[in-house]
């Protein structure tokens, strides 16, 4: 079985470095051959492309702009802001083309303050489907995959609209585009539903990207917690998962000090100096 390909999420890892170009360099020096950028828009796409080329690092995922900084967490399912969604998508696509990045996480957004989830769910889903159909046509032309990530509402964000793989799968089915896939973060999935073996198997056909962190602390996979990551990594290998696995966790005592799990994984799979 081929080893998994790990990508450093630079919104979480290598925070010891103040800028994204520096984090790109640090990730490559640590042995990574791929990275996720989160929100890269404070830097120019050209600056990031230069840094990635110099480091020989593949950029595999970025988030579309999340909206305003005063509480938005995406615009995909937010009624009345379709024009802003389209502008945000256009900027993300522009960055992807310069960065040669093939995936965009399209964030759904949050339920309005004071509203009950049941009251707004139908309207927000209809808005999400409308926006995703718009996005799918553009992404198909550019050969970019759009990703939907459920985020748990129990610990991380009680107001986030998209909370489970089941909900995401139903929306993807209604949109009906091969340009859109599920981004399954094992951390969120465990908190909302558990049953990870069956969920990974059930949703595997629509998974376009995987991320992880230990539960409940959201730290390294070998930190104390609920999840058996050697088993989960082996499960993904047995399923011939060929995509990237994003390391989206909070290092407990510094990024480099917490990479022992990764070096052990590489060593056990005969990978000497990289995650590719």
TrEMBL record:
Its EC number is 5.3.1.22. It is an enzyme of class 5 (isomerase). SUPFAM superfamilies: Xylose isomerase-like. The active site is at residues 149, 248. It catalyses: 3-hydroxypyruvate = 2-hydroxy-3-oxopropanoate. Keywords: Isomerase. GO terms for biological process: glyoxylate metabolic process. GO terms for molecular function: hydroxypyruvate isomerase activity. Catalyzes the reversible isomerization between hydroxypyruvate and 2-hydroxy-3-oxopropanoate (also termed tartronate semialdehyde). Belongs to the hyi family. PANTHER family: HYDROXYPYRUVATE ISOMERASE-RELATED, ISOMERASE. This is Putative hydroxypyruvate isomerase.
């Amino acid at each position: 079985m081929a080893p998994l390909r790990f990508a450093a999420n630079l919104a979480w890892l290598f925070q010891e470095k103040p800028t994204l170009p520096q984090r790109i360099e640090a990730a490559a020096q640590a042995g990574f051959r791929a990275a996720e950028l989160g929100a890269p828009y404070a830097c120019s796409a050209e600056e990031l492309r230069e840094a990635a080329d110099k480091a020989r690092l593949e950029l595999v995922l970025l988030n579309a702009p999340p909206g305003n900084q005063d509480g938005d967490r995406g615009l995909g399912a937010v009624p009345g802001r379709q024009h802003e969604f389209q502008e945000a998508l256009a900027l993300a696509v522009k960055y992807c083309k310069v960065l040669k990045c093939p995936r965009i996480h399209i964030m759904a957004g949050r339920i309005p303050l004071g509203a009950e989830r049941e009251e707004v769910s139908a309207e927000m889903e209809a808005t999400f489907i409308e926006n995703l159909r718009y996005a799918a046509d553009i992404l198909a032309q550019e050969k970019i995959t759009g990703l939907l990530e459920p985020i748990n509402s129990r610990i991380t964000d009680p107001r986030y609209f998209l909370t489970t793989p089941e909900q995401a799968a139903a929306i993807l089915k209604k949109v009906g585009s091969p340009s859109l896939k599920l981004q399954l973060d094992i951390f969120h999935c465990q908190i909302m539903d558990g049953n990870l073996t069956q969920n990974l198997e059930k949703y595997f056909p629509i998974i376009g990207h995987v991320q992880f962190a230990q539960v409940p602390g959201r730290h390294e996979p070998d930190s104390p917690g609920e999840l058996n990551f050697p088993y989960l990594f082996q499960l993904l290998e047995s399923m011939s998962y060929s995509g990237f696995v994003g390391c989206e966790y909070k290092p407990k005592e510094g990024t480099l000090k917490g990479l022992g799990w990764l070096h052990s994984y590489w060593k056990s799979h005969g990978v000497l100096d990289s995650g590719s």
